[in-house]
């Protein structure tokens, strides 16, 4: 039952064993991760183009993603609002942050580019499908699987060399509390959404375990449950990040824990500049710890829940 879990977790653990001290090599690894994500999402788009009754399937994808996102957001916001009322955590004054996004559109640019890559894959699949037939879609699935193994090894290496010692993570109680609250509320949302999405309980938990890490959740879910559910996971987690860009400036001074936590795993990277810009430097270590913990939890949780399918 756990053979698939072990096969996919193995490159993650092997990557985590690699210590990289060279800044140039770390930058190369970061670029390789980004490139791998784009490549796999392109393959996912091609696989989507191979679905029968594509129009109705895409409509189903959008409806399921909206349903999962709505339930998850409701659970997350309620839990983080409760936590915000109990944590003595207040954002500081808004400093001028170097290289911070100058607009919400600029901040969302990377997220929107990923959507464009998936759409490009769908278009490529529709254009090349009549010429190459099933060979195209089978090759896309196979290549996506091998690039996934490479990506997991690179992500493991990134986590090992992120500069976050375990002691620092465990001692930051606020970051830990935010991460645990976001994770538990997301998993409860996954259980609630599972029957509405015609999924088993463990598949619902897997769908909810992306915690905003849309590129990885889409890849892992798509590999096990097919490109349609991979697309649902992708758009569910991507929409979280897009809403976080809008939500953070509005609520960070009244409900700081909610603003930091809602971005999930992205609070350590993509939404971090917005958190710093509107909440001050005091919010940065809390956001980084919260995002790091969720990033560390997401891959093994997704793979563990999927492995329970047998």
Count the domains: 1
Mean pLDDT, as a whole number? 82
Give the count of helical stretches.
14
Work out the strand percent.
under 5%
N-end to C-end Cα span: 5 Å
Q: Can you write the helix and strand succession as a string? A: HHHHHHHHHHHHHH
Annotation, overall tally of beta strands: 0
Radius of gyration: 19 Å
Q: Which regions have little confidence, pLDDT < 50, spanning 5+ residues?
A: 94-102
- Gross morphology is globular
Class computed from helices, strands and strand pairing = mainly alpha
Helical content band: over 70%
**Largest sheet, if any?**
none
Walk me through this protein's architecture.
The longest helix has 31 residues, at 54-84. The chain is globular. It has 14 helices and no strands. The protein has helices at residues 3-16, 23-49, 54-84, 104-107, 109-132, 134-160, 166-171, 173-193, 201-207, 214-225, 227-251, 256-262, 272-279, 283-307. With 310 residues, the chain is mostly helical. The chain has one domain (1-308).
């Amino acid at each position: 039952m756990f053979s698939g879990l072990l096969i996919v977790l193995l490159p993650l653990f092997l990557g985590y064993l690699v210590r990289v001290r060279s800044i140039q090599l770390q930058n190369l690894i970061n670029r390789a991760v980004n490139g791998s994500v784009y490549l796999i999402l392109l393959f996912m788009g091609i696989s989507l183009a191979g679905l029968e009754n594509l129009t109705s399937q895409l409509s189903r994808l959008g409806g399921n993603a909206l349903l999962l996102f709505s339930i998850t957001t409701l659970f997350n916001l309620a839990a983080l609002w409760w936590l915000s009322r109990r944590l003595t955590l207040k954002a500081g004054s808004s400093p001028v942050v170097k290289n911070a996004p100058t607009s919400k559109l600029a901040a969302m640019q990377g997220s929107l580019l990923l959507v464009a890559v998936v759409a490009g894959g769908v278009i490529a699949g529709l254009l090349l499908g009549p010429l190459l037939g099933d060979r195209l879609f089978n090759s896309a699935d196979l290549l996506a699987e091998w690039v996934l193994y490479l990506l997991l090894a690179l992500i493991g290496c990134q986590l090992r060399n992120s500069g976050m010692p375990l002691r620092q993570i465990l001692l930051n109680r606020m970051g830990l509390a935010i991460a645990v609250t976001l994770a538990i509320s997301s998993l409860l949302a996954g259980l609630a959404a599972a029957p509405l999405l015609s999924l088993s309980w463990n598949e619902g938990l897997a769908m909810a375990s992306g915690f905003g890490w849309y590129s990885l959740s889409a890849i892992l879910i798509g590999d096990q449950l097919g490109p349609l559910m991979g697309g649902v996971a992708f758009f569910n987690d991507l929409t979280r990040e897009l809403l976080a860009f809008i939500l953070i400036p509005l609520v960070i001074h009244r409900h700081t824990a909610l603003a930091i936590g809602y971005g999930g795993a992205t609070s350590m990277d993509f939404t971090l500049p917005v958190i710093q810009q509107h909440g001050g430097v005091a919010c940065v270590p809390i956001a980084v710890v919260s995002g790091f913990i969720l990033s560390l939890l997401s891959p093994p949780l997704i793979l563990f829940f999927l492995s329970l399918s047998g």
